[in-house]
Predict the structure of MarR family transcriptional regulator.
Amino acid sequence: MMNAPGTDDTFPFDPASYRICDSVGYLMARAKGDLSRDVEQEVGALDITHAQASCLVMLAHGRARTVTDLGRELNTDMGSVTRLISRMEKRGLVERQRSDADRRIVDLRVTPAGHALVDQLPAIFCRVLNRRFRGFTEAEIAQFRDMLQRVIANNTG
């Protein structure tokens, strides 16, 4: 284990023993890709993409309300999110609405057709997660979730 210069913190990763296939970052990216691919296949039956499903759920559950919010949550550029929302708007899944409080802000709202899809998504997401986490205990999943939240919280630059 190496110490950062000028600190007492111990860092568990050492460039001298780094191997890409054993890298936590590589493994997280692989796992995310596998989960995303599985969800993509499952939501395809609803004629939507994984990104569209994620947007619908975030909007429906109040996690996001604008394109900016969605971009931040999905870690995606605003142009991509805007195009995604435009496609969803054409399909009647979401609608744009100017904010009454600040006319510069455009809020996004899930339509009844969008809510009909949102109602089906938890079963799909859980089916994929149950497949991928087969053999894990509830305690292991809770610990894994906690670890991921800590990794995210450590984003201090």
Notes: Strands lie at 2-3, 10-11, 94-98, 106-110.
